[in-house]
Amino acid sequence: MNIADIITPAQVDALIQFGITLVIIIAKIVVVLAIGLLHVAYATWFERKVIGHMQVRLGPMRVGYHGLLQPFADGIKLFFKEDIIPAKADKAMFYLAPVIFMAASMVNLSVIPYSRNFVIADINIGLLFIFAFAGIGVYGIFISGWASNSKYAFLGGLRSSAQVISYEIAMGLSLVGVMMMAGSLKISDIVKAQEASVFGMYAIPQFVAFIVFSISALAETNRTPFDMPEAESELVAGYFTEYSSFRFALFFLGEYIAMIIMASIASVCFLGGWTLPWYITNYVPFINYVPGFVWFLMKVYAFIFFYYWIRATVPRYRYDQLMKIGWKILIPVALANIVVTGLIKIIITTLKGA
Amino acid sequence: MTVREIIKRFTFIEIFQGMALTLRKMFSHAVTIQYPKERRPIAPGFRGQHALAKDRSGHAKCVGCGLCVTICPSQCIRVQRDKGQVVGYEIEVLRCIYCGFCVEACPYGAIVLTENYEYSVYKKEDLLLKKDRLLSSWDKYMPGKKGEDYFNKFWRPMSEDFGTPPGQSGYKGKKQ
Prior knowledge:
A: 13 helices; B: elongated
């Protein structure tokens, strides 16, 4: 029996091809995860610095130069802390919840195009995928609140799931305008459509949607002024009250990754992702030599800074105010935006046809 | 709802004002003092850790009269005398309220509150200041001229005003 009888040379080639693609994908995943986790670590440092300076303090200063090693010190501390599980908690669910939460937010890193040629999976329903996994993240929050068998955690979980579900509608509707303009759900197509459009970035024609998106992104990631689920003054820490040690770190990671994801969506769908508008590139030609991911990251950082800036400024909303803003203002505004966008699109196409 | 209110609500003008303020504050100088590296200047007349003053020849000024013990509101001073010698002088720092009455009461200017405020220790017993530690902290925190200045400026010792006014007949002290 010969090997050549079982497998043909063409099949061997196909297998080798498959192996190479697999290795490339794994390498991409490793790169994205490593850089993503590093970004999470430094997002916490950046947050503490920005909020500190806005409150006329200094923020972390001791560990390393201007506290640059503080995230690692925090990580090591969390890793070596005692892992406490409440006696009456539902153990299996208690173990599972942070994993669901973190995995649901980490998966989203795979569909975001960081640069023209760098994306792990450029799927054709990219935006829908992100919404779906944002919805699964709610399970993590809710299970953690329920499994902890603590009233604070339970209330936090309830509030969070109600809030995330309501604001997901507003966020989805605000992005519909972008999808209509780009004519695609594929994220890289949206970026390319923006590059080709007159405005260069969709934040200009879709500024209503951009405002709605920014507000609901804050609510979606449970950040101030919508941090009702984690309201320290009311609920200790919200749904992860009973978590300690590395399980808490998983929640923390998930939350910051979700924040980075939201900033990436804003950057990709409204600010033009890795591209710059033509009216900048035409007049400053040497700017084309800068690699695309630099612009992408700068837009992400700017949006994250906006998050922190809001957090340092605005106090927490009351729960009924939160729901009122979501259902009575943001959703109708987003719907009106869809109607207006559709009308203008029809008018433009008929004019072009005539 | 007036037009003004509607405009206010839909333009987020108040939130933007607040954000302008926070952004302005972000570039202002932070008020934090990095404590072990930077220190606040100590206010004149600061009342910190205790010390027993020494005279120029290096002996303790304290004669063990016990006025400080009497006046101390929290009763944290203990003095032991034996045959005219002060053999023990103890201050329980944990009970002291730093009122400075002992300094005011002392007719010989023998006890001071120094500017030292960093004397945290691991054991409670270490905060029962014994005589030799009190004397050594005089050398440490009130060396040379500083001690005298500090005394005359803030704790005008009763030893200077001690005695009867010159016009009045009475004991004027031992003639040398």
